[in-house]
Amino acid sequence: MLRFPFTSKEQALSDVAVKLSAIMGKVAGAALRSGRSPEAVRFVLVTKTVAPERVLEAVRAGATDLGENKVQEGLGKARALSNEPVRWSMIGHLQSNKVKDVLRFASEVQSLDRLSLATALERRLQHLGHGLNVLVQVNTSGEASKYGLALEAVPAFLKELWAFDSLRPKGFMTLATFTPDEAEVRRCFRLLRGIRDRALNDAPQGAMLADLSMGMSGDYEWAIEEGATIVRVGQAVFGPRPLPDSHYWPGAAGAG
Question: Which residues on neighbouring strands pair with residue 112, listed in sequence order?
Answer without folding.
Answer: 136
